[in-house]
Amino acid sequence: MNILAIDSTGNKTSVASKIGDDLLSLGVSHNRKDRPDWQDLLERINVSSDDLQNIDLFTFGQGPGSYTSIRSVATFLKAIALIHQKPLMPLSNLECIAYGHSLLYKNDSIIHSAISSDIDSEIYYSSYELKNSLLTPLNHEAILARDDLDSIFASKRDDIFVGNGWTDLPDSKKKTSDASTMIELAMARYSASEEYNPNDANPVYLKDTSYKKLNDQ
Amino acid sequence: MKTLGIETSCDETAIAVYDSVEGIIGESVFSQIKMHAEYGGVVPELASRDHCKKIIQVFKDATKSVDLKSIDQIAYTAGPGLLGALLIGESFAKGLALSLNIPLIPVNHLEGHLVSPSMEFKDIKPPYICLLVSGGHSMIVDVKAMGEYEILGQSVDDAIGEAFDKVGKLLDLPYPGGPHIEKIAQNGNPFAYDFPRPMMHSNNLDLSFSGLKTAVLYKVKEINLIDKQTKADIAASFQQAAIDVLNKKIIKTISQTGRENIIIAGGVAANKKLRSSIKELELKMGVNVYYPDLKYCGDNGAMISFLGALRSRAEVNPLRSHVRARWPLTELSK
To answer: Per-residue pLDDT for A32 more than 90?
Structure first.
């Protein structure tokens, strides 16, 4: 299966392609004023406009993270998947980080994933149970306060902690998500019976209550 | 040649396909008004989310009778507008252009409004005057030629549509206020309250609506309990004052420039009272007044696809994003 992945959830944009057995990836920094050109990035991993028709599955990091860059990537891939009539699979980058480390741990392990956002100083959190090389979410993704995160860390010492949201971890466990890990997770998660409709592939928003309606004011 | 146009600068997700022979051959607009009405105005973050969610359905509706392989180029609104919303249109446009292997043309939203009447009225050619009145803009533009625009006057404070919305709020009318003010004003006396006509007699062609809005605020506070008829009278008097100012400025513009063709564009151009008031100038001053069809007064994909066709094969640097929250007309070059 040929897969193209883009992850823009953190402070960089990474792209990866798996064409046959060849896995190519690339990451560049991005910010509000300097947005990378995806066509250029794709060409740098040898994916041209003509090659897009040979991709079987498109995937992207749906967050949590920077809304604007996630939405831009989601919309870009929506158009491509729509035109080529291919599936588009959104993936949680919290799960992606957990999956990136899961191969090191035994079945039934509990993995706590936390990401610190550079942009708005928020910490995103979720936890998963590892079963037969797949992760089952144990809770809804959420924004947590530092104190809450510290208490989880203190009370679950036997579990596994990954991601840059935890303060007392070695750098090897603080690796954030990237497009090449997304390809691995997409391969593990893909099921031919599911549709992965591009229209339904949207970012995840953890802050839906930050706007006051008129009758609430 | 077929140009697909994408518009997402504010709260309308709109896509259309313009064929240089047949005209508009497919179009669809999804308005977010209902969603924003709950907040009393456009919430930029929610606008971006909804564009992202709805853009595929709008695209499908607009292209249901169009062979996608026959599309020659993609135009999209790159500004001015809400940055997050603009990025959705640009991202979708980039994905389409890359997949279909066709050129991409970023265009200016205001220029879309300026040139859109030529899409409907084939005999309109520059030079002409365009009164662009919407929720975001109030300006009088001398369209000297395609890509050559001189802003003769513009609002120094609120856009006229913004003033309509704010007065609508003062009168407890649903958002957006413009259409509701127009509706209740039909039963009101336009001369019941003598609201100010700011800058109507100034020497320049600039406009101002903030003082008018504040005058309505004070009147509402003064009356305290407003019955249905008083509300209608206030709406009618406010609308009359705003239209009087625009009317006077257009008369002044015609006298100064000698232009014979006048176009009224933008969301407020849907106001029937404004339309009839400016239309009367045809007899009084011997000019031709044109309005877009009502469906093209607000933001739409048709004007973007048409403008894209006019700016066909423009030189575009694909290596960077082109969206700009601010993009003055005066920066456009031929």
So the answer is: no
Is there a cis peptide before residue B292, judged by omega within 30 degrees of 0?
no
If asked whether residues A11 and A85 sit together in one domain, one would say yes
| Cα atoms in the 13 Å half-sphere on the side-chain side of B208 | 14
B-chain CB neighbours of A203 within 8 Å are 49, 52
User: A75 and B318: CB-CB below 8 Å?
Assistant: no
Task: Provide the pLDDT for residue A213.
Answer: 67
Q: Which two tokens stand for residue A129?
A: 């149970």
| Bridging pattern class, strands B2-7 and B12-19 | antiparallel
In sequence order, the 6+-apart residues with CB closer than 8 A to the CB of A117 are A10, A64, A65, A66, A123, A124
Of the candidates B306, B265, B330, B318, the residue with the CA atom closest to the CA atom of residue B7: B306
What phi, psi does A21 have (nearest 5°)?
A: -100, 0
**Taking the model in full, what pTM does it have?**
0.93
Question: Who contacts A11 (Cβ-Cβ below 8 Å, separation ≥6)?
Answer: A29, A30, A31, A118, A119
**Is this complex's ipTM strictly greater than 0.90?**
yes
- What is the reported pLDDT for B103? 92
Give percent above pLDDT 90 in chain B: 85
CA torsion angle B209 B215 B216 B221 (round to 10):
150
Least confident of A121-130, A167-176, B288-297: A167-176
Mutate to test the interface with B, among A6, A72, A211, A213 (most CBs of B within 10 A): A72
Which residue from A196, A77, A65 is spatially nearest to B55, judged by alpha carbons? A77
Instruction: Write b or e for each residue in A123-160: b if 16 or more Cβ atoms lie within 10 A of its Cβ, otherwise e.
Output: bbbbbbebeeeebeeeeebeebeeeebeebbeeeeeeb
Q: Write out the residue range of the structural domain in which residue B269 sits.
A: 124-291
Average pLDDT over chain B, rounded to whole? Answer: 93
Q: Do B176 and B258 lie in a common domain?
A: yes
Across the interface, which of A42, A72, A210 has its CB nearest the CB of B87?
A72
Q: Does A188 touch chain B (CB under 8 A)?
A: no
Q: Are residues B150 and B253 in the same domain?
A: yes
What would the DSSP string read from start to end of B31-48?
E-HHHHHTTTS--HHHHH
Beta bridge partners of B59: none
B92 to A37: CB separation less than 8 angstroms, yes or no: no
Among candidates A75, A203, A210 on the partner chain, residue whose Cβ is nearest the Cβ of B92 = A75
Same domain, B272 and B198: yes
Q: Could you read off the pLDDT of B13-60 as tens digits, one per residue? A: 999 999 999 999 999 999 999 999 888 889 999 999 999 999 999 999
One domain, residues B199 and B80:
no
Query: A29 lies in which domain range?
Result: 3-92+178-216
Chain A residues near residue B39 by CB distance under 8 angstroms: 211-214
CATH number for the domain that contains residue B50? 3.30.420.40
Is the same domain home to B280 and B169?
Answer: yes
Q: Work out how many CB contacts closer than 8 A connect A with B.
A: 101
Mean pLDDT of B303-325: 77
Q: What is the pLDDT of residues B265-311, one digit of tens each?
A: 999 999 999 999 999 999 999 999 999 999 999 999 999 999 999 98
Better-scored residue on pLDDT, B240 or A31: B240
